[in-house]
Every structure is written in C-alpha cells, then in structure tokens.
Design goal:
alpha/beta, Rossmann fold, two-stranded parallel ribbon, 10 helices, binds NADP nicotinamide-adenine-dinucleotide phosphate
C-alpha cells in the first residue's frame, strides 16, 4: 500500500529535494508552498518519472486559516498522511529594533504557529497508524541565541523543544518525531531572509539541499530524534551549551556580522 507524505515548502531548497526523495522511494505526495507554478511543474516531473500521485496545495502558511484549509483538502481528497514534513520556514537578517514587524510576525506565524497547528491537526490520525513519521525542520540556530536573526533563532529553539517533547509523549505509539537541524545550506533561504550581507555563509561549510534532504530522510526513517547535519555542526551543537550563554551569544554575533 503506497504511503503519502505531506511536505511544506516544497517549491525550493530542502523541501524540493525531500519531495524528489519521497517520490523516488515510491511515496505519493501532497506538496505545499505559495508558488503554485513551481508546484505544478514538480508534480508533472515527479508523476512522470516515478509513477506516483502528487497533489498540490498552494497557500501562504503564515495565514491563520491555512493549516485548517490544508487539512480540509486532505479530507476532501481522502488523503491519509503517513509522513508529515514541516519544512517551510523563513528568517530575517538585521537588528530586531530596526526590522519590519510584518516580517517578524511572518517568522512566528510560519516557523512556529503553522508547524504546531499542522502537527496538532494531523497527529490524531497518525497515532491510529502502525507507523507514521513527523519531520520538523529546525536548524543549528536551535542551539544558541542568534543576534541579528534573533526571532529566527528563537523560533528554531521552539521547533526543537516542541518536537523533542512530543516525541517523548508519542513513546509507545507508531509515530516518531525527527527534528532536522541543518547548518548553512545552499537554497533560496539566504535571499528570502535578507542574509546576503551576513558573513555566516562565508564562514561555515555550506551543504547542498540534496545532501541535507538525504540525511534528513534517512534520520526520519530510523526514527532519530534530533538530526544535526554534518560533523562541524554536530560539534558546535554539542559544544555551545558548555560555554556561558553570554559568550556564545557574542560569538554568534561575530559570525553573523555584516560583510
Ligand atoms: N538554508 C539554510 O541555510 C537553512 C539552515 C538551517 C535551517 N533551514 C531551514 O530549512 C527549511 C527550508 O529552507 P530552505 O533552506 O530550503 O529555504 P528556501 O529555499 O527559501 O525554501 C523555503 C520553502 O518554504 C516556502 N515558504 C516560505 N514562506 C512560506 C509561506 N509563508 N507559506 C508557505 N510556504 C512558504 C517556500 O516556498 P514559497 O516561497 O513558494 O512559498 C519554499 O518552498 C526552513 O525551515 C529553514 O529555516 C535552512
């Protein structure tokens, strides 16, 4: 019986690569993002190449009603979700007090609210299944405060803490929750998060979205709780809690400074 994966943020970057992997593995897909044409192109490509069924649902997930609309779409189309991949996310580079509130609000609405709401909507049917998986995409930003991207880093702390907690609550059910924590990754994220001015991507090895997605898929299939991509990122995530937070915060500020 083919399984179905819901992937948010499938129009570019890590989400797009995850869609290719799930399709290659023979799973049907429900892909979501705002850019409908990209989703339509991807649907055509994946259906032809892998003989699977791909549904698309184009929406702005930062809108309050979108998660319920997406859930209703699944009901109308009798789609039962086996893999929920909450990947869509955005950041905003710069000083918080100089930033645009609409962009800050979108970070909270997308990275935190929609991820939590979708999880709340889909989990009850997932726990009825013998096996189901959630992948929530956080970041290495989840492990320390992030001056110049304060709200984004904090939103990823939330994703990590929320996901680890529900993973524990789901012990004894067939549902696993994996938090994928990529470090700097080649995608449209830099452009969409105004990060061209940050030194971060010059200072760390930058992974491809494909490698991160392959790693995340494997980790999810193994039921791994927290999956940090790459050795330098793993090391940094283990080391940063050992230092005083004020010091770590100052180091992140240095790394994030303008070019
Ligand atoms: N790239 C990195 O360095 C990096 C590092 C750590 C973690 N991450 C995380 O990885 C995840 C994927 O990011 P990425 O690197 O692949 O960046 P990306 O190429 O910018 O992809 C982001 C995806 O989210 C979708 N999206 C953005 N805003 C949305 C909204 N309001 N409603 C619905 N969909 C929306 C975008 O599609 P539309 O524009 O078509 O809506 C796109 O498909 C994010 O959660 C990000 O925080 C990225």
């Amino acid at each position: 019986m083919p399984k179905t994966a819901l992937i948010t943020g499938a129009s570019s970057g890590i989400g797009l690569e995850l869609a290719h992997i799930f399709a290659r593995e023979g799973h049907n897909l429900l892909i979501s993002a705002r850019r409908k044409e990209r989703l339509a192109e991807l649907k055509k490509e994946l259906e032809e190449k892998h003989k699977i069924t791909v549904h698309i649902f184009s929406t702005d997930l930062a809108n309050r009603e979108s998660p319920e609309k997406l859930f209703a779409f699944c009901k109308e189309n009798s789609l039962s979700i086996d893999f929920l991949v909450n990947n869509a996310g955005v950041g905003d580079y710069g000083l918080f007090h100089e930033s645009d509130w609409k962009r800050q609000e979108a970070i909270i609405d997308l990275n935190i609210k929609s991820l939590t709401h979708l999880t709340h909507l889909f989990l009850p049917s997932m726990v009825q299944k013998e096996q189901a998986c959630i992948m929530n995409v956080a970041s290495t930003a989840a492990f320390q405060p992030g001056p110049l991207m304060s709200n984004y880093y904090a939103s990823k702390h939330y994703v990590l803490a929320f996901s680890e907690a529900i993973a524990n609550e789901l012990n004894g059910t067939g549902v696993t929750v994996t938090t994928l924590c990529p470090g700097p990754t080649e995608s449209e994220f830099q452009e969409h998060s105004n990060m061209e001015k940050s030194k971060l991507f010059d200072r760390f090895p930058v992974a491809t979205s494909k490698d991160v997605a392959e790693y995340g898929y494997k980790a999810m299939m193994k039921g791994k709780r927290v999956a940090v991509y790459g050795v330098p990122n793993k090391l940094a995530s283990k080391l940063s809690p050992l230092f005083p937070r004020r010091f770590v915060t100052a180091v992140v500020r240095k790394i994030q400074e303008r070019k």
